[in-house]
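Q: What would this chain look like folded?
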Amino acid sequence: MLFQRRLLVELLANAASTLLILSVVLMLASIAQVLAHPEGLTLPSLARILPIFAFSQLDITLPISVLVSVVLTYGRAAADNEIDA
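A: My prediction, written as structure tokens:
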């Protein structure tokens, strides 16, 4: 049971960090695309648009972050000979 808790904690930590990194990268890419066409775009309006960008990217970043966290966690456990893969 202790091993399963440790795996769960590691899975959640990997998923959260991967989700944060992917969200920031995709957010910066979206902001760069928006700023390439600055017709009437100001900094306050960009600040209002940021949450919309963040929520619109969750359908992409959430499954990818879960997949990456599972591969990293179980790959590391198999490399440490904790489980047979």
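Residues 2-35 form the longest helix (34 residues).
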